[in-house]
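User: I'm preparing a small set of examples for a lab meeting where we compare how different chains pack in three dimensions. I only have the primary sequence for this one, and I'd like the structure in token form so I can line it up with the others. Please keep the answer compact; I'll paste it straight into my notes.
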Amino acid sequence: HPRAIIGSRCAIGYFSVVWEDVRLGDGTSIGNNVTIYPGTVIGENCLIGDNCIIGKQPHPAKTSTTKADGPLHPLRIGPGSILGTGVVLYAGTVLGEDVMIGDLASVRERCNIGCKVIIGRGAALENNVSIEDCTKIQTGAYLTAHTVVGSYVFIAPMVTTANDNYMGRTDERFSKIKGPRIEDGARVGAGALLLPGVTVAAETFVAAGSLVS
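Assistant: Understood. Below is the structure token output for the 213-residue chain.
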């Protein structure tokens, strides 16, 4: 788009779309078949893989617990960040510096991702997730909406979190949805399941396959 601002030494691949008011920092590289939605800000020296969808606005179902409340502020990606192939990032989210997101991962709206965070291949972060600096989220992990993760946390492959003890029944659930809180330095083993509202205290070790209720 003529209103996009493209820094120096940027590269944009074939069949990519850069919408109005997008800002690409110096030295950023965009792959093929990428769509970058209006207003998205991408810092310097970022690498965006092929087939990524960057900064899309959410369109929740009418029956979803997440309600549309007008357009969200554009996505912001900090300098030095790397996105693999097929990554989907929503508007309203902020990524810090040097974040790495693996192939086919998804980060929904209103998430705050700190600096030097790693999000593995195929991981899914729902809306309103917060992750502090230097945390690692491994392949296939699922962080439900309203999960809070501290710094230097390790979340192993296929960890699952939940936030709704009513499992979609009754209007009472809307005021009581609460994801887990995983505090600084905690380690959660492969395939563990964290139920709604639990706290994993700082430096806790959760063994693989555990059910934390």
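A couple of notes for your slides: The two ends are 50 Å apart (CA to CA). The chain has a mean pLDDT of 95.

User: Perfect, thanks.
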